[in-house]
Amino acid sequence: MAERHWDLLLLYGHTWRKDFFRCLLNLNFSGPHAVAVVFPSGEIHAILSDPWDAEMLPQGIEFTVATDVAQALAKQKGKAAGIAGMELMEARFVAAVPNAVSATFAVEELRRVKTTEEMAAMRKAAELADRGYQYFAEVVEEGMREYELVAEVEAFLKSNGAEDNFMLIASGGTEVTGMKPPTGRQMRAGDSVTTELTPQVDGYWAQICRTLVLGEPNPQQRESFAIFSEAQKAAENFLKPGVNIADVARVQNDVFRKYGYGDYTGPKYTRVRGHGLGLHCDENPYVLEDVNYTVKEGMTLIAHPNTYLPLSGYMVFGDSLAVTANSCERLNRTERKLFQK
Amino acid sequence: MKRGWITWDENELPREAFDARLDIARRHLAERDLPALIVYTDIWRSNRVRHFCNFMPYWNRALLVIPREGAPTLLCGLSPRVYPWIRSVTILEEIRPSPNLAQQVLTMAAEKNWQRLGVLDLDQLPSDLHQQLRAGAVPVEDVSLLLPPDEWELAMYREAARMAREGIADDLSQGVGLRDHEFTGRLERKFRGAGAEDLVILLTNGKTAPMPPRGETLGQDFSIALALEYRGHWVKIARSASSRDPIPTHIHVENLSGAYPYTPSGRLELSSVLAVRYESQTGGVRRFHGDTYWTGSGGLHLL
Questions:
Q1: Residue among A148, A183, A308 minimizing CB distance to B193
Q2: ipTM for this model
Q3: Least CA distance to A33: which residue of chain B?
Q4: A308, B32, B60, B146: which has the fewest C-beta neighbours closer than 10 Å?
């Protein structure tokens, strides 16, 4: 704050993106809004929408419960402020603090390298993701509807301490071009069932991506999985402090290119080759060949070469990774194979 | 999970409901001589766009463009790979891939020769999008529209409230002695298996307000506050496992039919879906009770 001549730092969160608020005050508020106001003295004042949220604050934190957040923020009018999460904020809230600038990138950069306590939460979330996938593989069966499977997995994750879970799913064959929320489709023999599970524990999200075939996988599904496995392994072998995130994407895409599937590494068929993980389930930096970012020790991310291939339809495979001093550590322990049931 | 099963059953919510809602917007555009209305949506703030076309994003954000004449168009940050699915659960036919939403608005305005645009609740847009639209070549104007829930919407809220109320009535007493996480998991299975799209469950043993589960064993005086989304319609209820009649000491009101799924409200707004929660206290134990109401003619109606 001193370097940037800010009188205040505001950390804003709303009900879906709580991460900037939670990086300072790690409480799972109901919202819809929460703002942590940090003064140069280190004093913190919380602005909350729901009076119940105030009861979760650590002792000694001053707070305001405000139906009108803009009005509460207007008390800071005239001060030079940095706002982390400014882009997510309603325009009328930002207008209440007219001398504000975005602190989003600066705070994201601080958040990227995890502390020991944060890494412990990431490990707990990854361990729950493993158990969640094990349960997923146990309960999935022919005839089950996609949303019924999701209900089972959500029940398991919440019963075992997940605050939330971000999950996408797809089932079917070569006609499947991507994952989405569950539908009422009943799963059939021969289907590829793809999922990404992303449980949140103590605020932190870890992710696992796996593909399961109902019945014996066909040769094309096996061939496809071998490519995904090689691509993910390439990322894991390459990832260490000092490398560029663009190259973490490139080494994965090169595997697809080697087998003649380079066309399937672009935005027409896929989104990203991975992304950061932490207090948000889809953090920067995105693992893409056109993103320039130097990897640091202590970062957590997932490498997942998820894409559509004509061999198998959409397929997914990925693990959460922590960047260590010389390489990276896999946080998930789930077997790395094409699951079948 | 945000969000689970997204679907559209035309028997439950007929196409004519959306036609009627779009007509309200179009009439307003005609009164203001505006060629089109822009409506914002994201993973959490999806009520407004859901109202007009049944689109509810599970990820990313989007803008619905409602022209004064013709069908609405979705400008969408999601990949074209999921557009067939979007078309299957909405009234939408035209969907344009839009990594840069503001740029796509300007492109569309140039194509249609639109000289001005209305934006629903302009100053409530996320600030980055607000700034980009304001800086664009086409002037944007704030449009405030009252969008009271219609009969179709009220029927959906009623179904959501029934699902929540009956589900909790069946399971509440079985929560005593369970860990709060375990009870939450039981409700997730039950409600999502019955077609709920999303749930937020808060629990307390009476020493605090209801909070997210934190590993406590639920005692005989525990209370639950449940927010449940059924096909885009959120309701809230709160119940105590105790059989004592609540004598309210605190009352809190939230609006469920605004832009957000729920927003604290300082008053009983008319023609709105409201969640009203009460707190009572006996012997140092706090108990919570609440329901979802419609403030139509004649006062509060339990949904």
A1: A148
A2: 0.96
A3: B263
A4: B146
